[in-house]
Design goal:
446 residues; alpha+beta; Jelly Rolls; 5-stranded antiparallel beta sheet; 30% strand; disordered N terminus
Length: 446
């Protein structure tokens, strides 16, 4: 199975919405502009610069730039249709506006302006009213990094076939502990990078008492023989592996909440778990990691973890299969964010917090889950989770022929690394209330 993931899926969505553009030539070329319609320079550009330009600019994930009138005008009908149907900006939770720091939402007024501009003939307006193009750090969404680490060689991908997970190691040469505000994983070739898990290994690492206790009944994944081509090092057993960041199509840069930072010990090594997919052409990738260091005094450490259900079965042809798991908290904890992840059969998610008293409340609902937009939902008001509480995650899957993305509705599906298999995976960013001790000793993953 060959996919170009977010790039091709987003492109097809825009092209479908803009099909009439292709047949009519430049949009609105046969109709005069409404003199009362919003104009690009005065009304539309400010909305696009604020909400769209992060992706819709040269070199980024979107299939077209929208930075100028000449760029945007041919796509006016597509813009109207996509924002009217709430497909763009891509945001898939039904939480009220203001719930998350990283919301990709248009206000009703902005949405109406874009629609009125397209329906009114997409006029340009007075060039003197055009706002300045936003300044971007070329190649980096979060700004110029303080330090950049990259794979030490290009990885060569064949045109076809399945590629098992690959592992790459990059030494940091840090001579002192580093507090990191943001971690940006930058694929060298987005069309073939399905996901990246970024681990940090150091000896000694600061001891971290366990915080998360995943469900013992379903948190194991099926064991498989790992091909030698995975190139995973076996000489790092004394350098504990600790997850610090992740990347998947559509993810935001991993930024620590205010007053917090990621901590990296001296002398560490980054371990990149790379999931590649072939796309019909032989190509290469060299992924980079950019760090921006924290300048906040005495930040609180934010940690990355995960919890899964790895033992489910999705029966062939079934269109509404629920898969549940949970994680228990071993100490009082602040939860900053959750990331739901399935593959092509996943369709929605629900998370509930169950307190030791038995009280239960919904904390995140994602009714329109989209594999092409993997989102860390960053709570504006973080969750205070007491010791003994649990978060229960439920994902629903469509393994029927009605799911147009389904690779094969005639087979039962279990946990697996590849996209024609499935996952029930949640990433979590959290901080224990009690700070860890600073003495050297063995580290814990979560």
């Amino acid at each position: 199975m060959r996919m170009k993931y977010a790039v091709i899926c987003v492109t097809l969505g825009w092209i479908a919405a803009a099909s009439s553009v292709a047949t009519e030539g430049q949009y609105s070329s046969r109709r005069p502009a409404d003199k009362n319609a919003p104009t690009f320079t005065k009304d539309v550009a400010p909305i696009i610069f604020k909400n769209c330009a992060g992706c819709h600019r040269p070199g980024e994930i979107a299939p077209m730039s929208l930075l100028t009138y000449e760029d945007a005008r041919p796509w006016a009908k597509a813009i109207r249709d996509e924002v009217s149907e709430h497909n763009m900006p891509p945001w898939h939770t039904d939480a009220p506006a203001g719930t998350f720091h990283n919301e990709r939402l248009l206000s009703d007024a902005d949405r109406a302006t874009l629609v009125a501009w397209a329906n009114g003939g997409a006029p340009k307006g007075d060039p003197a009213l055009m706002p300045p193009t936003p300044a971007f750090s070329e190649g980096w969404a979060a700004g110029k990094p303080d330090a950049v680490f990259e794979m030490q060689e290009d990885y060569k991908l064949p045109a076809d076939g399945t590629i098992e997970y690959q592992y790459f190691y990059v030494p940091t040469s840090f001579t002192e502990p580093k507090w990191v505000k943001s971690i940006e994983i930058r694929p060298g070739n987005r069309e073939v990078v399905h996901h990246v898990l970024l681990y940090y290994r150091a000896k000694p690492d600061m001891p971290r008492a366990p915080v998360l206790r995943p469900n013992a009944d379903n948190s194991k994944t099926p064991e498989r023989d790992a091909p030698p081509t995975q190139r995973r090092r076996t000489d790092l057993k004394e350098m504990p592996q600790r997850l610090v960041a992740s990347y998947a199509p559509g993810t935001n840069v991993q930024v620590a909440p205010q007053g917090t930072a990621f901590r990296l010990e001296p002398g560490g090594i980054f371990e990149l778990q790379m999931h590649y997919t072939t796309n019909g052409e032989a190509t290469t990738d060299r992924t980079k990691v950019g760090l921006i260091f924290s300048n906040e005094p005495s930040p609180r450490e934010v940690r990355a973890g995960q919890f899964i259900n790895g033992v489910f079965v999705l029966p062939a042809g079934e269109k509404d299969v629920a898969v549940t798991t949970d994680v228990e908290f071993l100490q009082d904890t602040t939860v900053w964010a959750l990331l739901p992840h399935t593959h092509l059969r996943g369709k929605k998610w629900e998370y509930k917090l169950v307190l030791p008293t038995g009280e239960s409340k919904s904390i995140l609902s994602v009714p329109r889950y989209d594999f092409n937009w993997q989102t860390y939902y960053m709570f504006k008001e973080p969750l205070s989770v007491p010791k003994g509480a649990k978060i229960i995650s439920t994902a629903w899957y469509d393994n029927s022929a009605a799911n147009k993305s389904n690779p094969d509705p005639k087979v039962d599906v279990k946990w697996g690394d590849q996209t024609w298999e499935e996952m029930q995976y949640t990433g979590i960013l959290f901080s224990p209330v009690q700070a860890p001790t600073q003495t050297a000793g063995p580290a814990k993953n979560q």
